[in-house]
Amino acid sequence: MSNLSYEESKKRVRYGLVLLAVVTGIEVLISLFGKGHMISSVHGNIFVLATCGVLIAGLSLYKAYFIVYEFMHMKYEVKGLAMSVILPMLLLIWAIIAFFHEGNAWKYRRDDIKKRDSLPAAPAQESGLLPAHTYQMEWKG
């Protein structure tokens, strides 16, 4: 980037800002369409929601890529430095997906947990936590 003149640098920044604005506008339109605000007959259609979600995720990833490579100047750095930024970011994305998966599992198990909480507690055993036959050894010889 240091080989660009001041005017060329301003043009690159303007190009980046316009590109990000256009992609964001497209994301907003896709979101409005997917939620049924533009065409009411698509409201609640799971295929349309899934398609819109994938499109929005793809456009968001493109914007993140563009910001990292252009505005953070990773495009002009050596590959090792760029990978030292990109790989931890991919691990962060993986962690977010894992947390969403775990939270979804908790959400679906919540009714089971409420049902178990409403049951009366089982009586305590007299000899401790394990049954009495656990402590007895049999000789098979």
From TrEMBL:
Topology with respect to the bilayer: Multi-pass membrane protein
Single GO cellular component term: plasma membrane
Intracellular or extracellular location(s): Cell membrane
Keyword Phosphoprotein: no
Coiled-coil region list: none
Transmembrane segments: 15-34, 46-68, 80-100
The protein's name in its UniProt record: Cytochrome c oxidase subunit IV
Species for this entry: Haliscomenobacter hydrossis (strain ATCC 27775 / DSM 1100 / LMG 10767 / O)
